[in-house]
């Protein structure tokens, strides 16, 4: 094995003026070479890899981003989340944004119902606080989830505009409340190379039922997270590895439907 090959290649970047670019590209070369050597990659396997990446690129357009789906299913996205999220145990943990977030949803009143689909009713409520326990008033809370058919509005022309998407402001006590329906587990898009990769490797494409939250408040770090249903059969085998134990919630049965009480804790931005 000729170890000097790797050295020769990393040396080719010696004049790279940007220190961070140099660090990233030389580390990439070292890891790529180590990977090929570890698995004794054959020429045929290399070609199939190139074909797979080419097909992944061809599947991308203004809406579909197959490379992000590849990053999600290889766990790279959640590693990035881990690298870049706070590690303050008092604050709510983050989770993946996913491809179905939509900006520009109309703001709804405290306690509004975001569901225009039939389903099992759920009352979601709680408060947004900072790590000292102080309520965060006026925080923007955006939520989105699938309908019982496992599709987000936007994927499904049968669903009314804005279905199961909400935008709320916390009140003076930091509280939020809205009505919705119980989310459903659903498959990530499987009609592309990533779907083929999952089949070829004996993996399922399902995400456990969840509701996404994005919370923003002045002087606080924004939070992108999701709450996962404890009773979902895929809660321990999420296709994109987004589930964290602290984000698993119980849907508590009540007279009609369920109640979910859940607080969120934000981190104050560091002052410059
Ligand atoms: C989602 O939860 O919406 C999602 C996340 C990653 C990949 C596909 C879907
Ligand atoms: Fe989702």
TrEMBL record:
**Cofactor(s) the protein requires to work:** Fe(3+)
What's a BP term from Gene Ontology annotated to this protein?
catechol-containing compound metabolic process
CDD domains linked to this entry: 1_2-HQD (cd03461)
Q: Where is the Intradiol ring-cleavage dioxygenases domain?
A: 124-152
The UniProt GO MF terms for this protein read:
catechol 1,2-dioxygenase activity; ferric iron binding
Membrane listed as a keyword: no
Lineage top rank: taxon = Bacteria
Pfam families for this protein: Dioxygenase_C, Dioxygenase_N
- Which keywords accompany this UniProt record? Dioxygenase, Iron, Metal-binding, Oxidoreductase
Q: Which residues cross the membrane?
A: none
**Do you know which InterPro entries this protein is assigned to?**
1_2-HQD/HQD (IPR039390), Catechol_dOase_N (IPR007535), Intradiol_dOase_C (IPR000627), Intradiol_dOase_core (IPR015889), Intradiol_RC_Dioxygenase (IPR050770)
Q: Which family does it belong to?
A: Belongs to the intradiol ring-cleavage dioxygenase family.
PANTHER family named in the record:
DIOXYGENASE, PUTATIVE (AFU_ORTHOLOGUE AFUA_2G02910)-RELATED (PTHR33711), INTRADIOL RING-CLEAVAGE DIOXYGENASES DOMAIN-CONTAINING PROTEIN-RELATED (PTHR33711:SF7)
What's the protein here called?
Intradiol ring-cleavage dioxygenase
Species name = Caballeronia calidae
């Amino acid at each position: 094995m000729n170890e000097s090959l790797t050295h020769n290649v990393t040396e080719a970047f010696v004049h790279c003026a940007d220190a961070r670019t140099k660090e990233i590209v030389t580390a990439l070369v070292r890891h790529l070479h180590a990977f090929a050597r570890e698995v004794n990659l054959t020429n045929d396997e290399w070609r199939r890899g190139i074909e797979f990446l080419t097909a992944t690129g061809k599947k991308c357009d203004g809406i579909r981003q197959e490379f992000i789906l590849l990053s999600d299913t290889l766990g790279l996205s959640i590693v990035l989340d881990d690298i870049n999220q706070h590690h303050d145990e008092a604050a709510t943990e983050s989770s993946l944004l996913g491809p179905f977030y939509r900006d520009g949803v109309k703001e709804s009143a405290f306690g509004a119902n975001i569901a225009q689909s039939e389903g099992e009713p759920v009352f979601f409520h709680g408060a947004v606080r900072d790590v000292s326990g102080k309520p965060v008033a006026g925080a923007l809370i955006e939520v989105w989830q699938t309908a019982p058919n496992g599709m987000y509005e936007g994927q499904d022309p049968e669903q009314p505009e804005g279905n199961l998407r909400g935008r709320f402001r916390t009140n003076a006590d930091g509280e939020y409340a809205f009505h919705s329906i119980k989310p459903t587990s659903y498959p990530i898009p499987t009609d592309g190379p990533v779907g083929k990769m999952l089949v070829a490797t004996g993996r399922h494409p399902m995400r456990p039922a969840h509701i996404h939250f994005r919370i923003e408040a002045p002087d606080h770090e924004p939070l992108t997270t999701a709450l996962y249903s404890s009773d979902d059969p895929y809660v321990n085998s999420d296709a994109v590895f987004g589930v964290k134990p602290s984000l698993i919630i119980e849907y508590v049965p009540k007279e009609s439907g369920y109640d979910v009480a859940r607080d969120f804790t934000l981190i104050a931005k560091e002052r410059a």
